[in-house]
Specification:
With 259 residues, the protein is mostly helical. The longest helix is centred in the N-terminal third of the chain and has 29 residues. The protein is globular.
């Protein structure tokens, strides 16, 4: 019965998405193309002509960059779908109050919300994997293998950000989250360059970030070059992040919405 209620939450999100999909689909297709053209081909040409390849294990920069951007895109998507839409459901549109007026409970609401985010992540990462393959960064099979860890990365962030958003009184905290949390992770978790290139004091922090583990899994599977960290450790880390975020989101939403 609980799964049926969660499925109803997914259905409601899908019905809304039927009227709003055009904008997100355009960005889903064009963002990876623009990023790979600008960073992978444009900047990558300069990196490859210099000494960059020596620091990338002999890989071309486009090849090195693409799997990292796959994980980073999943992070951005998961965090984005767990921020302003959740704030809207709680405060602005109050759709969560309407949902909880039915037999659906807070756990089913949270699971349904994260399930819908997972569906969105599958679509986004499949498209990105296809674009990555079209640019010649990986093969079709290896690109497909990188999709599950990217989705897991996005879901981990979605769960934690949902818990964070549910406790906020206004949207100012969301701007701070992306400015001081998500963006530094995007820049310093191994997406654009090896963490070994960072100053020694910041490397342990970078290695401990969840995005680094997602990047390590995606890059290792997409390029078959080995993993920077034992993949069991990375998968366990991301699963723990997802479980902890789901638990916290359920608790915070129950305090916020149940009076």
């Amino acid at each position: 019965m609980a799964l049926a209620y969660s499925a109803r939450v997914v259905e409601a999100s899908a019905r809304v998405y039927r009227r709003t999909w055009r904008g997100s689909v355009v960005s889903t297709f064009f963002n990876p193309i623009l990023y790979l053209l600008a960073m992978g081909v444009g900047l990558g040409t300069l990196v490859d002509e210099g000494t960059g390849a020596a620091n990338l294990g002999g890989l071309e920069y486009l090849t090195f960059l693409a799997p990292g951007l796959l994980a980073a895109t999943a992070m951005m998507t998961g965090a984005g779908d767990a921020s302003w839409p959740v704030m809207a459901g709680i405060k602005w549109r109050k759709t969560y109050d309407a949902i909880l007026a039915t037999p659906v409970g807070v756990p089913e609401l949270v699971i349904g919300h994260l399930s819908w985010v997972g569906i969105r992540l599958i679509f986004v990462t499949v498209v990105y994997s296809g674009v990555m393959t079209a640019f010649g960064a990986t093969t079709v099979l290896q690109g497909a293998l990188a999709i599950p860890p990217a989705v897991l990365t996005g879901l981990g962030f979605a769960a934690v950000v949902t818990a964070y958003t549910a406790r906020l009184k206004d949207e100012q905290g969301l701007s701070a989250l992306f400015r001081f949390g998500i963006m530094p992770l995007f820049l310093f978790s191994g997406t654009f360059f090896p963490i070994s290139q960072l100053p020694g004091w910041i490397q342990p922090i970078a290695y401990a970030t969840p995005l680094f583990h997602g990047v390590s899994l995606c890059r290792g599977l997409a390029l078959d070059t080995g993993f920077e960290v034992n993949p069991i450790v990375s998968v366990s880390y991301l699963l723990a992040l997802l479980a902890l975020g789901t638990l916290l989101a359920t608790r915070v939403m129950r305090r916020r919405l149940i009076t």
